[in-house]
Design goal:
Elements lengths: L6 E7 L2 E9 L5 E9 L30 H4 L15 E4 L5 H10 L7 E5 L2 E3 L4 E6 L6 E18 L17 E26 L5 E5 L23 E3 L15 E17 L2 E2 L4 E17 L17
Parallel strand pairs: 6-14
Antiparallel strand pairs: 1-2, 2-3, 4-8, 5-7, 7-11, 8-9, 9-10, 9-12, 12-13, 12-14
Length: 310
């Protein structure tokens, strides 16, 4: 190049020898050079940097710290023997959006749901119409926002009162960590919907409704009573009265089990972090009681028309 390097560095990275230099061109600025050469190992000696395929259980490889020789040397005192480290770090705990979504789904509750029926007092061989009061079988959306904080740090050089970089005893720039706290908003969305709705009527009979995927299931929750011409799709006729059912209670136990499916997705500061991902199904159940009576015809002696009473 025709001139002596103002500063240079040589390092070994895996099987490579790396050399870098900075040349002071006076009023014409600075010029840098970077070179690397592969050091071959002999056939009989072990290769320290031999490449291999990752295996299960491998840990993440730590990248050696580099130095910002490309632009900082001109701003360091002439006696500097090293550059300013380029190191930076982020300190943050791991947050699993899937675990948050699972917790949201696990705490899903429908406290206002109630099983209703018509007639309230059932009759043998007369269909009882059932429905759900307080839930129409719709897709249920859930959203949770969490504010997450972490520290971002970088290396900054120590400077004297005149603003010049200070050197340590080894001629390297004296440095310190400068950190700032950064906040991000994690938004987790869950959508839950009924996969199936199972009714049991207390007399060893039941009715199962399979629901469409990711959609409302109004047929599975029945139709509230409005008039005798509009039956509920959930209906059952009892062949026996509830006398003696459930011990001395004399009522049939009505059971309702809704199997909910769910998916979740998340975003960070409004930027999408994932598409919809599945969660394991969850069953929610409710119960009610239904009393059924039996009406019997009674034969009586006919009275002549002329007789007032028999």
């Amino acid at each position: 190049m025709g001139c002596t390097a103002s500063a240079s560095i040589r390092a070994k990275v895996a099987p490579y020898d790396v050399q870098a230099a900075v040349y002071d061109l006076g009023g014409h600025g600075f010029q840098t050079s970077l070179g690397a050469s592969l050091q071959q190992t002999s056939a009989g000696s072990p290769s320290q940097g031999a490449a291999r395929r990752p295996r299960s259980g491998d840990t993440a490889q730590i990248i050696p710290q580099g130095y910002c020789w490309h632009d900082d040397h001109a701003f360091l005192p002439s006696g500097a023997r090293a550059g300013i480290p380029c190191g930076s770090s982020t300190t943050a705990g791991n947050v699993d959006p899937g675990a948050i979504a699972r917790s949201m789904f696990d705490h899903l509750d429908l406290p206002d749901l109630r099983i209703d029926m018509n007639p309230r007092l059932g009759m043998v061989n007369v269909p009882t119409w059932f429905w759900v009061d307080g839930y129409g079988g719709d897709v249920i959306p859930l959203t949770d926002n969490l504010v997450l904080t972490h520290e971002e740090c970088h290396v900054a050089v120590d400077r004297d009162a005149g603003g010049l970089a200070m050197l340590d005893a080894n001629g390297a720039p004296s440095t310190h960590q400068e950190c700032r706290t950064v906040s991000n908003t994690l938004t987790v969305q869950v959508r839950a919907w009924p996969r199936s709705i199972h009714w049991s009527f207390g007399d060893n009979h039941d009715q199962m409704v399979s629901c469409p995927d990711l959609a409302a299931c109004s047929s599975g929750v029945g139709r509230p009573y409005t008039d005798p011409q509009s039956p509920s799709p959930i209906a059952h006729s009892y062949h026996w009265s509830s006398l003696g059912a459930n011990g001395s209670a004399d009522v049939y136990s009505i059971g309702l089990v809704i199997k909910f499916g769910a998916q979740y997705r998340f975003s960070i500061d409004g930027r999408s972090g994932s598409g919809w991902q599945g969660l394991a199904d969850r069953d929610l159940s409710w119960t009610a009681v239904h009393r059924v009576q039996e009406a019997q015809a009674v034969l009586v002696k006919a009275c002549p028309v002329s007789v007032v009473s028999c």
